[in-house]
């Protein structure tokens, strides 16, 4: 099954009902905005000075030159310019007094006591930020479904907002399965005893924890035991909106996760058992009473790819998030690569500057457990299942990690 | 003064003494690694299966074909393969028994009871991940000065680490100055009274808060009053490693921040009063007894640019951080743009796909207070001071925001 079909199917079946809460702006970066926000005012709300200087009437400077410096008498800042022969000291951001329509910069005049001499004409609205030139009253500032960025907070502050409606944080339960997988707390001797130190669940935990709109609850390890898996699933389902299992999803007999979950006495719907991606083929999706459960490979790289391409894409779709999950850029591939029929192939790759271009070098390592490729990679190359491969020198779109 | 010279000067003068602490891996993503970490073991630590299947001796399959299926008798998993006619059920990740050197996949055999039939030859080490093929004993996994990413945590877990040495979080004090600037709590009526609702300090706060190796302490507002500024500076210096002021840095008389700080009764060193960047010209840097103080513009866009190009670049240099601050990519500019002599010009811009390429469109708005340009921008174009501008259609390197 392709990722697209799986996500399409998932979205048809699952309706996440995430409540909305009011949050102070200073905590809202990274949360998902739950309302369309329009500006109630023009910004700037009045014509204002863009510099430190002197506000005056521009026409009165029209004949100014270094041979013909024009004097203006300074008066205190007020709401009106008394006459065309006056100028008013003004700071950056201050409102332009009525009657003035330009600001001459401090650096551009000669000042003698309370007289300034202007040496060249100032255009009308010179150094003035016009009312509404930044943001117009009624303009959409933040759309529902936007992951809030710092610049949104700046705009919302400018229109006098101190709180914003956001979706409450999604609870994601994370469980590691596989009798051979143990905590790194067991130390290196675990390897000698035939066990594997877990590295996949901390990877998934750390990637997801960087998204502020999620709350990752890490449940540790369960063995390949039907009762343990079912009990843990019940518990974690009660406490979360979505579950992620790592490991225990292969076709072998010892991997009991998939089997145990679908045999639970619940409303079960299988969306995918295995997906047409490499690495990540064992990735499976089950819905248990409106809650999605993602079963990822126990291998770090396969789980990492499926996390972005399956879990996060599914979440972005379910939550109608408008931001891009990946930045995609074109790069010249420096090595020939082959796909594998029937599978979307994901290659870890290194991006680098080459002359005028961006080049990308696939990291050619076998297997889906290759940690080093993740350490070195800063990009992903996708070879879609209907494409044989890419030629050396071809320009392809890659995803920046 | 150019940014480069200012940072060079700063680094000569300031030595940040940031202590090192031991941190649990699960909290360490985003922190700066304070040690070079080498792998104490090979990974995988033994030849292991890359699939779910049956471990066997590859030579024994050499004449296998669909016309000549070769039977193997299954025996229980153990540390040794009893004979060349035996195969051992094995799970992904399990150690290959001695005497076996390949794994045939579950899907590729016909099984009848405790006999499997292999239909094609398996190459030596087929479906086997070799000892050390991922990471070699002694290999550098994470270098000192690296901002730790999730994939580093996975590698460190795999070598049995549960804690890592990181630099303690840097304390950054953030202070807003300017008598005309008030908190958004004052509401829209503040504009009618001639005040400006602050939007710059929440922007800076939110950008910096996304960096986990920093701790941003937000002190609120001080007026353009020498005593207030000095008192706040004393207090904030005691509590932080670095201070950032927004606003109050113009050349006008009402902006007292720079003047007040340099007149403090302390060991003062001025690195820059104003920088050759637009927007961001008022940006200034003062060292007070080994602690850098950055004075940024009160305008959000100017402060935002200076935050990345001056403050963060300076921090990355001071802390010897190895990660890139920006991702840079080439894009075709769709409009002619001009620089301004003597200044590095920063234009906010929109990146978009155009045919096979990435195109970039500068957002042409005057002024440094233009919030909308920040909302729409996803890239920065830099026109260096020695460059007149860029032609329409020219390919330039841009920074992704």
TrEMBL record, chains A, B:
Pathway: Cofactor biosynthesis; molybdopterin biosynthesis. The keyword Transferase applies. SUPFAM superfamilies: MoeA C-terminal domain-like (SSF63867), MoeA N-terminal region -like (SSF63882), Molybdenum cofactor biosynthesis proteins (SSF53218). One of its GO terms (biological process) is Mo-molybdopterin cofactor biosynthetic process. Pfam families: MoCF_biosynth, MoeA_C, MoeA_N. Keywords: Molybdenum cofactor biosynthesis, Transferase. It comes from the Archaea. GO terms for molecular function: molybdopterin molybdotransferase activity. GO terms for cellular component: cytoplasm. InterPro entries: MoaB/Mog-like_dom_sf, MoaB/Mog_dom, MoCF_biosynth_CS, MoeA-like, MoeA_C_domain_IV, MoeA_C_domain_IV_sf, MoeA_linker/N, MoeA_linker/N_sf. This is Molybdopterin molybdenumtransferase MoeA. Residues 173-317 form the MoaB/Mog domain. It comes from Ignisphaera aggregans. CDD domains: MoeA.
